[in-house]
Structure to design on (158 residues):
């Protein structure tokens, strides 16, 4: 399970990317969802505040639960609580550059990754092009008997 400090990651991306248009919280969640699908993992992304009034764009994001913590707490506290409450903290990966969260992760032997590092790894994985190998027959073509069969099938016999 990957738990992400949402605005920490978003801020990290925006502060490092001068040429990249700023991405929204929804776009970030969609990108992280694609990454999680490729890595076959599940995740949670936790944002401070109440988020946008219309949260419907977050409903169909797969492999990623999206949380806005409201005004009575902050994302750091919620993430810390989840780390402490985990029955299998070694199976957690915590994404944040916040030292407080990193310290909480290390205390429970969870993996802690800085937001910048996570984003770099995510970008590398998503930018890889999958090359499907072509069947040899595609380059070689049909042999004479196969050609005759297809001509017969389509009624184009000579």
């Amino acid at each position: 399970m990957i738990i992400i400090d949402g605005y920490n990651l978003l801020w990290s991306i925006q502060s490092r990317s001068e040429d990249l248009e700023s991405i929204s919280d929804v776009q970030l969640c969609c990108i992280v969802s694609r990454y999680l699908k490729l890595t076959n993992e599940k995740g949670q992304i936790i944002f401070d505040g109440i988020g946008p009034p219309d949260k419907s764009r977050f409903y169909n994001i797969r492999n990623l639960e999206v949380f806005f913590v409201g005004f009575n707490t902050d994302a750091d506290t919620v993430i810390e609580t989840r780390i402490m409450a985990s029955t299998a903290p070694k199976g957690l990966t915590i994404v944040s550059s916040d030292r407080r969260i990193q310290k909480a992760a290390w205390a429970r032997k969870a993996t802690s990754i800085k937001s910048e590092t996570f984003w770099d790894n995510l970008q590398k994985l998503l930018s890889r092009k999958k090359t499907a190998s072509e069947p040899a027959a595609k380059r070689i073509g049909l042999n004479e008997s196969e050609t005759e069969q297809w001509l017969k099938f389509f009624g184009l016999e000579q």
In short: The helical segments are 6-16, 25-39, 75-85, 99-107, 115-127, 136-140, 144-153. The CA atoms of residues 15 and 22 lie 9 Å apart. DSSP finds seven helices and five strands in the chain.
